[in-house]
Structure to design on (228 residues):
């Protein structure tokens, strides 16, 4: 496993520029941002003191050492643990497309070598790809197994012909990608519920996979609520 992680930060859209400047101060020069929206129900939002707001999602490749530093600074400097401020997760990158790719994304960040130590994780990032317009079907299934909220990004697929052969029906190119952060112990139940309630046999035609989270920030209130 490379000494590289994929850092995903979700914030209120109104705070996007503030977080972009934050990443710039810590040497993250290659950052991709997109608009998205949350799926948390009003009851859950009220319980956690959150608001229903438009979101921004930011993607960056960073070393594991920088990911650890950034998640700490997101908590202390950006106060990401405050209600409705945001969340961040870092997932290990297993391979990269050569030295040129690594040099471009890291832009001078010092690495510790080709291989990185195996990390222990309390969270998993579940990624669901479904037909557009069915994110609530996906989230209803996920919530039935204990998931909280998710974040939805609209995307365009390029494998419509392959999908038609696989599912036996004509599918739209437009897709929804739903990101759900869940406790490692709940991951299998949530993914099973999604495939049963919104899988290939439904109109959502959802597919899902999970990635271990190596670093995280912004889950303090959720952790405290789970313990309570």
């Amino acid at each position: 496993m490379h000494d590289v992680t994929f850092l995903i930060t979700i914030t209120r859209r109104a705070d996007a520029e503030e977080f972009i400047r934050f990443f710039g101060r810590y040497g993250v020069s290659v950052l991709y941002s997109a608009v998205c929206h949350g799926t948390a129900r009003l009851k859950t939002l009220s319980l956690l003191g959150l608001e229903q707001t438009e979101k921004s999602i930011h993607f960056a490749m960073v070393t594991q050492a920088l990911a650890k530093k950034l998640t700490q600074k997101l908590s202390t400097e950006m106060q990401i643990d405050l209600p409705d401020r945001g969340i961040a997760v870092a997932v290990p990158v297993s391979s990269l497309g050569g030295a040129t790719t690594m040099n471009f994304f890291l832009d001078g960040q010092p690495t510790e070598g080709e291989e990185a130590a195996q990390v222990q994780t309390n969270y998993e990032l579940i990624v669901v790809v479904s037909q557009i317009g069915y994110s609530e079907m996906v989230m209803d299934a996920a919530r039935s197994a204990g998931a909280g909220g998710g974040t939805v990004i609209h995307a365009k697929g390029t494998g419509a012909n392959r999908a038609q052969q696989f599912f036996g029906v004509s599918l739209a190119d437009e897709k929804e990608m739903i990101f759900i952060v869940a406790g490692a112990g709940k991951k299998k139940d949530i993914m099973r519920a999604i495939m049963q309630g919104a899988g290939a046999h439904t109109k959502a035609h959802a597919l899902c996979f999970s990635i271990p989270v190596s670093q995280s920030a912004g889950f303090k209130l959720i952790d405290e609520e789970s313990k309570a």
Q: What stands out?
A: Strands lie at 4-12, 32-38, 54-63, 86-92, 123-131, 151-156, 174-183, 207-212, 215-217. DSSP finds eight helices and nine strands in the chain. Helices lie at 16-25, 42-47, 64-76, 98-106, 135-143, 160-167, 187-198, 220-227. The first strand starts at residue 4 and ends at 12.
